[in-house]
Specification:
This protein has 1427 residues and is α+β, with helices and mostly antiparallel strands. Helices cover 57% and strands 7% of the residues. A hairpin with a 5-residue loop joins β16 and β17.
Length: 1427
């Protein structure tokens, strides 16, 4: 069959030869006739030109031209029809009169009659019947006049043609004008782009990689505001950085993609480019840092084994961290905490019960942030009180001042600007201390570089002049009005403090939203909102036009540029220039941390005996001097010793410094091409470190290719390498680091805020400290040799297995393998082989007593045999493989059939891996493999369908289970799809399910127990073969049937051959693996949704959580890709995508943290576009990353320690659930059903697996408690009357709250274990209730199953006890027992709630065929919103 052919191609095949000849002859004659007409017209024009040269035109005829409307029609008619002949006739008549001298001799009689002569002339020279003998000059001019008059006669052809011509000319002029404007706009844009090119860091040749610009445009097109997603495909992003762009190429390339951009969109693009120019500088800096660490790895890897010891590396990081100055330690990350150490390395009591804020990844993070929040609150309260006191007398002054201002504005003076200036100055003086605290809070959150600085507006007057020129030319906006602009700029400053205060208040009110987290959540959100975008700056409309999208700043050099756009008219905005620098210098305090690190490092040199922490001295620039002043201000604020008067003096100093920097930056024409004094080499060497990492399997494969002993295995090994699932991921093993993991670990340690000199000092320290003994080097070399040997063995044995299994069945018969092995060395090693069988655990025999070996089982068996043989194991293995390879002796036809079938089987597995967690592509590829093999190797037409077992809930009398047809070939869909087969119906499918082995019916018409789904088929047509194969999981349990038949084959007798049946068994095996692969990913998504919902109730500071899965790339022999499976927003509602977007590495030059995480299988903490991300890998059981969770925490540098610990708990439980799901998939572990609800089904089990594992963790932690832990809680009691005298009111209140927390938590736990107390009087008596807290309590808690059928508790009553206490309250109390019981109680409540809504609350989290996405939220029900 031929598909998708063009209709013209089909028509051309139907053409006859004579038609083609006829068309050619007709076309030739038409061209000749057309040419004759053209030649005739040209000849006529030439004759007219010659006549005009001989007889010039008579301009006297122009007097006939008159466009008066009254006589226009008549005049045109006469000039066209009569006058050309009449005028000539009259002329001839007058000439005759003159010739006969009739005028001079009037009395002479004559027969000449002028009227008759004129009439005769007109009759003889009728233009319709007389050939034109030529025209006089007067006639030719009259003809032209006639044509001109016809134009003005309405409703005529000439008039209409004339109007059309005028319109055409007008449109042509418009097009020419538009083209001129477009050319000017294009030239202006090109000029702007050429100017913008200088903002980038360039290579030594003055060029920039094309892939960088393509990434910038790709991210711009991805913005939802512009709806340009379709243009991303046009970019065709390059795969390498080899192609470069100079200034002209840069301009032309961008211009070619933005030709139809409007003015506003182009301005946004310019801002986008400027912002990414800053981001590119950070990319280069990261690349320099990673290159330093990569060279360190190669230096420390003395034996070139490709890995370094993990414990020694962490120990050196701890030493370096301890010996660093305090200021530097606040930027570094604590290597003793997660993510440097793994969850398994943390003891359960420490993991679940440790509430020491000092163990944060950032030193003193919680204390500094809370202290700043407290100072801000006190400042706000004092300011609010002072406003209330001065409100009455200020109102009268303000009213009179406003009246005078309005009168001055009406007279046209600019004095109206003064009140705004005064108000700004007053407010600046009042809130100077608060702004200083604000600057300190930003510094404490680490917004001194990257996150906010990278998004600052760009440098100065040069770019703004280009932008303004572009605005004036394309949009014709004219100049801006002075007073209006002044008010627009000053107004936000006048209200900035009030906006910040109101924002702080609103955030405090909103903080109670998720799980009563108002106390710390609102504090952090207030800082986040004030950062640089959502506070006063976000209210500044005029600023928003000139600052890049996030509104942040980069460095002190960028500070002056932010002011520059406001100075569009220097004379108009002179008053405001005195105010803006003060605010900006205060807000940019966070930018000065780097300089302080250098200085503090100098000061600490003398006290530190190690040279490795010395930082080379640098010259103090004006920026560093300004930085020192700001840091001095912050330190004074932290000590609480700065008076408001001193604040104002210091603010004036900062204002003058900012003015000088502004004037200095105006003269700067382009950015410095150096990063911390270092030039860029032009190469991004370590953005993709995988090309530097050793790929051992490829090296071993190449060695085997060069070995002539295994020639027959070469093609199979090539296929194995090409079919490899996902290449390039590093497996985490907890013992050593490879290159990718080592570089990533050190990059995570130093963070993004430290200068390169810190990385160089760390490198020097490592070079001196990383020392290996001789024994350790020998051990490392031996480990590397063993790893190489293991990989080589795996390749050889896998290739041998595939060669042996030529039909692709997926297994080998143990009996056949033994028979061949016993002939090795003519049977001399038979006893050794028998000894190896004694140590081998073979799988259970199949029905028929056949022991089948899978690929892994075959490899283990051969390795045990080799270990029993004498000699070097590697040499013995190669000898044994060579013997088996030559003994098998497969023909060329079998090899070709094997290769084709392996390819089709691989397509089934690849469909599962690239499906985006959808089973539909797996069904498609399965039927495709079956039909292709039947056509190519069986010469038959088949039909097939897949049936899955389900529990029979509707008609249990017809059997406890049923088979539902979930997929089939296209022709059988109307008869087979979604049909149900019960046990009491005809058919052999249930026989296959019960027996567990395939059944082949050669002729169905003679069997008598075959159920035909197509009832319309005649009995005489029911001829063919039928094959039913069981579908088994990793535990050999039957979950469905694969049925294949030849009923549609035209041949009456067409049975399945043995090699076909074996291949169909292989298809069933691969389909089973792919089926469970997809469902395991679905269950993982279900677990992640549950964990995210649990986490969102505890951490309000998370902006979004995005879940990614790793998949093979759709392009052959290329890198893997990431699929965006789902996104959880700020409300905790998860959007699961039906067709998950694909993310390629080449589009992530600026967002490479996702691929860094999956490459190294390590946690990444990164700042991108002003937002901080924590990216955590989800690992396979082998240690490789199967996906990643991207936690976007907004502008906060890090979470509070309480939130950070809760995040760790969520990830530990989620990872444990993934290990369990994947282990069950592969058959490595047995399924554990701890809770009763887990027996309800696989989907329900996945929905509660997160809570079950967390419940087990808490139970194990409770078992480690001692009785004294509970006794201390019972003694935590007091008498309010007795304590009121000894404690202050605040302390008494806090003490009472703690006692209530203890009572309520313990009472809730008691009610879980003893629900009968609900009706007892002991419930209200604490002295009696606490007697239930005895030695059996922990045992009862650990044995309690909240989903058991016999559990009947009062959820409302227990909820009243525990839900009135927030997570923060429990954390502040700081008791381990209460921490455990608090989480245990909430998990029990969630499980009970899920158990009561079993069918509606736990549903698969994937969209259906008709949905584009689905929204889900767990626990407590699933909020589904189809779209």
């Amino acid at each position: 069959m031929v598909f998708n052919l063009d209709q013209t191609v089909l028509d051309s095949k139907l053409e006859q030869p004579w038609t083609k000849n006829l068309f050619e002859r007709v076309e030739a004659r038409a061209q000749v006739m057309q040419q004759k007409i053209i030649d005739k017209d040209n000849l006529k024009k030439e004759l007219e030109k010659k006549a005009e040269r001989k007889i010039p035109k008579d301009n006297l005829a122009q007097e006939w031209f008159n466009t008066e409307n009254m006589t226009l029609n008549t005049r045109a008619y006469l000039l066209d029809k009569l006058l050309p002949t009449l005028v000539v006739g009259v002329e001839n008549m007058l000439m005759q009169v003159e010739k006969k001298k009739l005028l001079s001799e009037a009395d002479i009689p004559t027969k000449f009659d002028p009227i008759n002569y004129l009439g005769e002339y007109l009759m003889r020279n009728n233009p319709y019947y007389t050939k034109d003998s030529g025209m006089s000059g007067y006639q030719r001019m009259m003809r032209d006049v006639t044509e001109d008059l016809k134009i003005h006669v309405t409703n005529t052809v000439c008039n209409r043609v004339s109007k059309m011509k005028e319109k055409v000319k007008e449109k042509q002029k418009q097009r020419e004008h538009i083209n001129e404007v477009k050319v000017k706009v294009a030239n202006t844009r090109k000029q702007a782009l050429q100017e913008q090119f200088n903002e980038w860091i360039l290579d030594p040749k003055g060029t920039i990689p094309l892939i960088v610009i393509q990434n910038v445009l790709h991210d711009f097109f991805q913005k939802s505001d512009f709806q340009l997603e379709a243009r991303c495909k046009e970019l065709n992003i390059a795969d390498s950085i080899e192609r470069r762009l100079n200034t002209m190429e840069f301009t032309e390339y961008i211009s070619s993609h933005i030709e139809d951009f409007k003015s506003e969109m182009f301005e946004e693009l310019l801002k986008h480019l400027c912002h990414y120019a800053d981001e590119f500088q950070e990319v280069i800096k990261k690349d320099m840092r990673r290159e330093i660490f990569a060279e360190l790895f190669w230096y420390c890897d003395h034996g070139k084994v490709g890995f370094l010891d993990r414990q020694r590396t962490l120990a050196l990081l701890e030493t370096f961290y301890d010996q660093s100055p305090k200021m530097l330690r606040r930027l570094l990350r604590n290597p003793r905490q997660w993510p440097f150490i793994e969850f398994e390395e943390i003891e359960l009591p420490e993991f679940w019960g440790d509430m020491d804020n000092q163990k944060h990844i950032y030193e003193d993070f919680d204390n500094v942030l809370l202290e700043i929040n407290k100072l801000l609150s006190e400042k706000h309260a004092r300011k609010k009180q002072s406003k209330l006191l001065n409100n009455s007398e200020d109102q009268h002054k303000h009213d009179s001042h406003r009246k005078s201002t309005l009168s001055e504005q009406q007279t046209g003076t600019i004095a109206g600007q003064e009140p705004n200036t005064d108000l700004n100055e007053d407010q600046d003086s009042e809130s100077a201390g608060e702004q200083e605290l604000y600057g300190e809070s930003i510094t404490a959150q680490g917004q001194h570089k990257g996150s906010t600085m990278r998004q600052g507006s760009r440098k100065g007057s040069r770019r703004m002049s280009v932008l303004e020129q572009h605005k004036g030319l394309t949009a014709e906006r004219g100049s801006l009005k002075g007073s209006r602009r002044m008010s627009a700029i000053e107004e936000p400053h006048k209200e900035s403090s009030e906006v910040q205060e109101s924002s702080r208040e609103s955030k405090t009110e909103q903080g109670v939203h998720r799980g009563s987290v108002a106390e710390e959540g609102s504090s952090r959100e207030s800082l986040t909102e004030q950062g640089v975008h959502r506070g006063s700056i976000a209210e500044d409309g005029s600023r928003r036009e000139s600052i890049t999208p996030k509104g942040s700043r980069r460095g002190s050099r960028r500070m002056s540029v932010i002011e520059e756009p406001r100075k569009l008219s220097t004379e108009e905005q002179e008053p405001t220039r005195e105010i803006i620098p003060e605010e900006q210098d205060i807000d940019s305090t966070s930018q000065s941390r780097e300089g302080s690190i250098l200085r503090e490092s100098k000061k600490s040199r003398e006290s530190t005996p190690f040279e490795h922490i010395e930082i080379p001295p640098q010259e103090k620039t004006e920026e560093q001097i300004n930085t020192e002043g700001k840091l001095f201000m912050i330190s004074e604020l932290q000590e609480g010793s700065v008076s408001s008067r001193r604040d104002r003096h210091f603010l004036l100093y900062l204002s003058e410094t900012a003015k000088k920097k502004l004037q200095k930056d105006k003269s700067c024409e382009s950015r410095s091409q150096k990063i911390e004094g270092k030039s860029w080499s032009g190469e991004l060497l370590t953005c993709n470190l995988k090309k530097y990492a050793k790929c051992e399997d490829e090296e071993q494969a190449n060695l085997i290719y060069g070995n002539s002993r295994f020639t027959d295995l070469h093609s199979i090994i090539r296929n194995i390498q090409s079919y490899k699932e996902v290449k390039g991921r590093s497996a985490f093993n907890g013992v050593s680091f490879n290159l990718l993991q080592f570089v990533q670990l050190l990059e995570t340690f130093v963070g993004e805020d430290t200068p390169l000199s810190v990385s160089e000092n760390l490198t020097s320290f490592f070079k001196r400290g990383y020392v290996e003994t001789k024994e350790e080097k020998i051990c490392a070399l031996e480990e590397a040799r063993q790893n190489t040997s293991r990989i080589r063995r795996g390749l050889l044995l896998e290739a041998l297995f595939q060669m042996w299994d030529s039909d692709g069945s997926g297994f080998l018969d143990l009996k056949e393998v033994d028979e061949l092995l016993y002939t090795y060395k003519e049977g001399m090693e038979k006893e050794a082989i028998k000894r190896a069988k004694l140590h081998t655990q073979f799988p259970k025999p199949h029905p028929g007593h056949e022991v089948r070996l899978s690929s892994k089982q075959f490899q283990k068996y051969i390795e045990l045999v080799v270990s029993e043989l004498t000699g070097n194991e590697d040499l013995v293995l190669e000898s044994l493989v060579e013997f088996l390879m030559t003994t098998l002796n497969r023909s060329h036809i079998e090899a070709l059939r094997n290769s084709a079938r392996r390819k089709w089987l691989h397509q089934i597995q690849r469909a599962a891996e690239t499906s985006g967690v959808s089973i539909e592509p797996v069904y498609t590829e399965t039927f495709k493999a079956l039909t292709q093999d039947a056509q190519v190797h069986g010469n038959k037409k088949i039909s097939a369908h897949i049936s899955l077992l389900e529990e029979n809930l509707l008609l249990p009398a017809r059997g406890s289970v049923l088979l539902r047809n979930v997929a089939c070939t296209l022709d059988d869909a109307p008869f087979v799809l979604n049909k149900v087969l019960y046990r009491d119906m005809k058919g052999i499918s249930f026989t296959v399910v019960d027996g567990g082995k395939p059944i082949h019916v050669p002729q169905v018409q003679h069997h008598g127990n075959i159920f035909f789904w197509n009832h319309s088929r005649k009995k005489t047509d029911q001829n063919g073969s039928f094959l039913a194969l069981p579908l088994q999981d990793a535990y050999m349990r039957i979950f469905g049937v694969l049925a294949v038949d030849t009923l549609r084959d035209p041949q009456k007798i067409n049975i399945f051959l043995l090699h076909e049946i074996r291949f169909y068994q292989g298809v069933a095996n691969v389909f089973s693996t792919a089926f469970h692969y997809v469902h395991s990913r679905e269950h993982i998504l279900h677990v992640v949704i549950t964990g995210i919902s649990w986490l969102y109730d505890l951490i309000p500071g998370i902006t979004s959580i995005t879940t990614y899965f790793v998949e093979p790339s759709p392009e052959q022999d290329s890198d893997y890709v990431l699929r965006n499976m789902m996104v959880t927003g700020s409300l905790g509602l998860t959007e699961v995508h039906k067709n998950p977007p694909t993310i390629f590495r080449k589009t992530c030059i600026f967002r490479d943290f996702l691929f860094k995480c999956t490459d190294s299988s390590e946690v990444i903490v990164s700042s991108v576009y002003g937002e901080n991300h924590i990216v955590i890998p989800l690992r396979e059981r082998t240690g490789e990353a199967l996906g990643a969770l991207d936690f976007n925490i907004g502008r906060s540098k890090m979470l509070f320690y309480r939130e950070f610990k809760d995040l760790q708990k969520m990830m530990k439980v989620t990872q444990a659930a993934c290990y369990e799901i994947l282990g069950e998939l592969s058959g490595e572990i047995e399924k554990k059903r701890v809770l009763e609800i887990e027996n309800a089904g696989e989907v329900q089990r996945a929905g509660v697996l997160f809570f079950r594992i967390m419940l087990q963790e808490l139970q194990e932690s409770l078992r480690m408690l001692t009785s004294m832990n509970f006794v201390s809680l019972l003694l935590y009691d007091y008498d309010p009357v007795a304590q009121s005298e000894s404690l202050a009111d605040s302390q008494s209140q806090e003490f009472g709250d703690n006692v209530k927390l203890i009572h309520d938590t313990l009472m809730a736990v008691i009610l879980f274990i003893h629900p009968e107390l609900e009706l007892s009087s002991d419930l209200e008596n604490w002295d009696k209730s606490k007697l239930y807290i005895n030695r059996y309590l922990v045992e009862n808690i650990c044995a309690f199953d909240p989903t058991a059928k016999h559990v009947n508790i009062n959820l409302k009553l227990i909820g009243e006890y525990i839900r009135g206490h927030s997570r923060i309250e429990v954390w502040k109390f700081g008791n381990t027992v209460i921490e455990y019981l608090y989480h245990w109680s909430h998990i029990c409540l969630a499980l009970i709630e899920l158990n009561t809504k079993l069918n509606s609350a736990i549903t698969p989290p994937l969209p259906s065929k008709t949905d584009t996405c689905v929204y889900a939220k767990m626990p407590g029900g699933s909020l589904l919103d189809k779209c």
